[in-house]
Amino acid sequence: AKDSGGNRYEIADPVSDARAIDRHSLTNHLPGALERGEFFLEYQPLIRMSDSRLTGAEALVRWRHPVHGLLGPDRFIPLAEHTGLIVPLGRWVLEQAVRQACDWCAHPLLGGRAADSEPIRVNVNLSPRQLHHPDLVQDTVAVLEWAGLTPASLCLEVTESALIGADEDELKPLRQLAEMGVDIALDDFGTGYSNLANLRRLPATTLKLDRSFTQGLQQHPADPVDVTFVGGIVSLAHALGLRVTVEGVETEAQAAQLRELGCDTAQGWYYARPAPAEEIVAHWATA
Ligand code: C2E
Ligand code: CA
Ligand code: CA
Ligand code: CA
């Protein structure tokens, strides 16, 4: 049902009423939630497919709401984006995640791997409003310097839809960050208005294939159309010099298929669910 302002509560629809009240209460609590320390981060491991080792983790924000309990980002990120709170919240996420990455890099078993390959990376999601904020580059550089983290240990995830229609001026901040060595990942690739031709002009280093693509690979045998499709995207991405990360890998069969198709990195419940930072170390810091 539509939320048409004043007559919201006249609609005898318990579900939509509950949603309206919910939204109202969330909006009221949101501005102070950051100061009250109600947000926290979980991290989901990113696994290199060639040797099944940890290459990094994506920071995912959660809200411990005083009334509604634990809330996932889908419940409040759109609101935060709408109200503008996403800017301070996003900065807080970036600070936390970057500091966490420093701890991982300094860890004798996790950080020690940097010698044989690349540093452990932390992925941070950027919403459209953050992306278009004039201080993005300056703030990101400041946070990296404050924590003493090398730019190559940070990956910023932006959705393709946030970049659709962006002109060269609007892409400049991302390009600057990429030139500094920050990894830029195109998140949820393949959803919305994907435009393969568009890929060439975006300053991305990684393509994150959306979960919807991995779902078709779950059956035995996998849907041949999906196999062809994913294989084609991977080849194209590699030809453009992009790394491919797949999300939503839930089964061993999917993982095997995606490895065979040439995907570089994977993320999903098959490997690990999002978890507090300490668990990342406990599970993955093995010699
Ligand atoms: P996303 O960037 O696509 O993040 C991946 C989502 O898929 C996460 O949900 C994760 O828990 C879930 N997921 C991971 N593996 C699997 C799997 O194997 N199967 C299934 N079914 N799901 C899996 P989550 O944590 O609820 O995050 C939802 C979205 O919220 C994220 O989607 C991202 O767009 C947004 N988000 C999260 N944290 C932040 C943040 O700090 N800032 C901004 N701007 N957005 C955020
Ligand atoms: Ca993401
Ligand atoms: Ca994603
Ligand atoms: Ca997704």
The largest pleated sheet is described as:
8 strands, mixed, barrel
Q: Could you tell me which ligands this complex binds, including any ions or cofactors?
A: ligand C2E, calcium ion
Q: Report the strand count.
A: 9
Radius of gyration: 20 Å
Can you list the strand order of the major beta sheet?
1-2-4-5-6-7-8-9
Instruction: Assess the beta-strand content as a share of residues.
Output: 15-25%
- Runs in which pLDDT lies below 50 for 5 or more consecutive residues are 1-12
Fraction in helix: 40-55%
SS content category: alpha/beta
The span between the termini is 55 Å
The total of helices stands at 11
Shape: globular
Write up this protein:
The chain is α/β, with parallel strands linked by helices and 287 residues long. Helices cover 43% and strands 19% of the residues. The protein has helices at residues 14-33, 73-83, 86-106, 128-131, 136-147, 160-163, 168-179, 211-215, 224-239, 252-260, 277-284, and strands spanning 39-48, 53-65, 69-71, 121-125, 154-159, 183-189, 206-209, 243-246, 265-266. Helix 1 crosses helix 2 and helix 3 (86-106) packs parallel to helix 5 (136-147). The longest helix is centred in the middle third of the chain and has 21 residues, at 86-106. Residues 1-12 have low confidence and may be disordered. The structure holds ligand C2E and calcium ion (3 copies). One calcium ion (CA) is lined by residues 188, 210-211, 247.
